[in-house]
Write a structure and sequence with these properties.
61 residues, mainly alpha
């Protein structure tokens, strides 16, 4: 039973959430459009990105 008015808010976390929401809103919250944009930024970047092979999901006994 957490009421919002009793929770402590980190201003940095709040700022990151606002930026993230504005970014998503600029693509009308379309995940495919967001992904395409991120991939385009990645290709234009001078950085090297690691690509890891997919891991198999293990089921707990």
């Amino acid at each position: 039973m957490n009421s919002d008015h009793n929770q402590w808010h980190d201003p940095i976390v709040d700022e990151v959430r606002q930026i993230r929401d504005r970014y998503a809103a600029s693509f009308n919250y379309d995940l495919q459009a967001l992904f395409r944009n991120l991939k385009e930024q990645e290709l234009r970047s001078d950085r090297t990105f690691a690509i890891y092979p997919p891991r198999k999901i293990s089921v707990a006994p």
